[in-house]
């Protein structure tokens, strides 16, 4: 596996879905859809959008799960339900409370309409120190970071500038290819 370098497997920033800070969730979803349509269909589709500041530097990532979290009802009881687990309430009971809360919420169409106007920076994930990897690094180092950090992607850097993204699916594809080569020999 150490033959592969991150730069060979990454998706360049120019091919990835991006939106500027201040964009709405709807803008981000449109950017993701557009990137998926333009991306090589023989590869795995994108599952997120990178958020850029005014200098076109990556300041965050917005994944599909982040967009779905934006649809969750927000009220005074949101945090209280999550806190119940510390008082030994079962996960089944907490799930039932969440389900009741969801049933009382507005219909999905209304929730989507409201969420589409929300700003990406309110839901994006700011990259942590362990989510960066140098373009010249070998794949085994990237795998270690993906696994130990439980990341679905890593931001690829060259001279501290983000130049691309290494997705878990791309790392897995390289591992799978290597396994197949080993079995054929």
CATH homology group of the largest domain: CBS-domain
Shape: globular
Q: Which CATH architecture of the largest domain is right?
A: Roll
Helix count, DSSP H or I runs of 4 or more residues: 8
- The side-by-side strand order for the widest beta sheet comes to 1-7-6-5
Q: Enter the CATH topology name of the largest domain.
A: CBS-domain
Spans of at least 5 consecutive residues whose pLDDT stays below 50 are none
In CATH, what is the class of the largest domain?
Answer: Alpha Beta
The proportion of residues in beta strands is 15-25%
Q: What separation lies between the terminal Cα atoms?
A: 16 Å
Characterize the biggest β-sheet.
4 strands, mixed
Q: What's the mean pLDDT score? A: 86
Integer tally of domains: 2
How many E strands?
7
Note down, in words, how this protein is organized.
With 185 residues, the chain is of the alpha/beta class. The chain has two domains: 6-68 and 118-184, CBS-domain, CATH 3.10.580; 71-115, no CATH class. The chain is built from eight helices and seven strands; from the N terminus they run αββαββααααβαββα. The radius of gyration is 19 Å and the shape is globular.
């Amino acid at each position: 596996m150490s033959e592969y370098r991150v730069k060979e497997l990454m998706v360049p920033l120019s091919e990835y879905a991006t939106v500027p800070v201040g964009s709405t969730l709807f803008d981000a979803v449109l950017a993701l859809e557009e990137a998926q349509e333009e991306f090589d269909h023989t590869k795995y589709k994108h599952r997120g959008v990178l958020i850029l500041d005014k200098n076109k530097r990556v300041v965050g990532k917005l994944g599909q799960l982040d967009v779905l979290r934006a649809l969750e009802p927000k009220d005074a009881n949101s945090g209280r339900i999550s806190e119940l687990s510390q008082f030994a309430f079962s996960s089944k009971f907490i799930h039932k409370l969440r389900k009741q809360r969801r049933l009382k919420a507005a219909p999905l169409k209304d929730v989507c309409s409201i969420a589409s106007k929300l700003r990406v920076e309110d839901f994006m994930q700011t990259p942590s120190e362990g989510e960066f990897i140098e373009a010249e690094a070998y794949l085994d180092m990237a795998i270690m970071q993906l696994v130990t950090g439980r990341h679905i992607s890593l931001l690829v850097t060259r001279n501290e500038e983000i130049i691309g993204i290494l997705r878990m699916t791309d790392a897995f594809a390289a591992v799978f290819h290597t396994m197949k080569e080993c079995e054929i020999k």
